[in-house]
Design brief:
homodimer, 3-stranded antiparallel β-sheet, 6 helices, about 5% strand, DNA-binding, DNA-binding (chains A, B), DNA-bd_dom_put_sf (chains A, B), DNA-binding transcriptional MerR regulator (chains A, B)
DNA sequence: ATTTCACCTGGAGTGCGCTCCAGGTCAACG
DNA sequence: CGTTGACCTGGAGCGCACTCCAGGTGAAAT
């Protein structure tokens, strides 16, 4: 087992068939094989690459940058340093993203505590969960 | 000090003036005051509310849901339970988001280690940082 | 043999969240 | 008094990342 139809690939990769076609069209999936009747045939390697794309995409990397990465990947071993740098930058951004989310989550949880009345026992509290909204 | 021009508000809130207008237009900023000549005047409360919106927005809440939240907030104290539920749901999603990011970051870091040669000492490793990309 | 089915193509359309624009108003400054 | 500058409005436009569509093909099932 090492080659997959578009349908299988969509299922396994989590991308829709349309997205797979789109990715191939813009150059994110270079060298996808075709069978005799012109249909795409995906390999295990393709699936692995799709996994990487998925990971980058879901961590917020824009397509333009994934494109750069995939061009580098096509470029062979001389581009390893650049690829490394790109990934390290991205890793950094993911780190910051997580940190920001944590702070914002804290703010939301503070609000939740406020709403659920776990904070301060003043009678006013029930009626004045200040939203900063005018009456 | 408790009232701000659109410009100041944009600066303090981090939203552009255009976005502030847009938010008012769609109902996310109900009851923004106007001065004699029709210009918007923002209060401290408005700024606080904008802070909340910012937090929700940046944690990935879609505008439609923020809209629901702000309608609830306008609805007074009877909606506190619903608002609480909404925020708890969102908090949950943020939690999951962070968890997913962590996993994906781990994958990226694994790749980084691979690229930086910290993994396995085989000579082949240098030339075969398998991308799953065909030659 | 014909119907079904998964797939193909190029290109148009969609949804979201803004962002920009033209044309106008008003208060303040020199 | 003229000009700046910040703001106003309604509505059009944009960038991103898909997603959908019409019309067609080729292999397989009935």
């Amino acid at each position: 087992m090492s080659s997959y139809s578009p349908g299988e690939t969509a299922e396994k990769s989590g991308f829709s068939i349309d997205t797979l076609r789109y990715y191939e069209k813009i150059g994110l999936l270079p060298g996808i094989a075709r069978n005799a009747s012109g249909r795409r045939v995906f390999s295990d390697g393709d699936l692995q690459w799709l996994g990487m794309l998925r990971c980058l995409r879901e961590t917020g990397m824009p397509i333009a940058e994934m494109l750069r990465y995939s061009e580098l990947a096509r470029g062979g071993d001389e581009t390893v340093r650049e690829r490394l740098a790109l990934l390290q930058d991205h890793d950094q951004r993911v780190e910051e993203q997580i940190a920001r989310l944590r702070e914002q989550q804290a703010q939301i949880q503070w609000k939740i505590r406020l709403y659920s009345g776990e904070i301060c026992g003043e009678p006013a509290a029930a009626g004045a969960v200040g939203e900063g909204l005018p009456a």
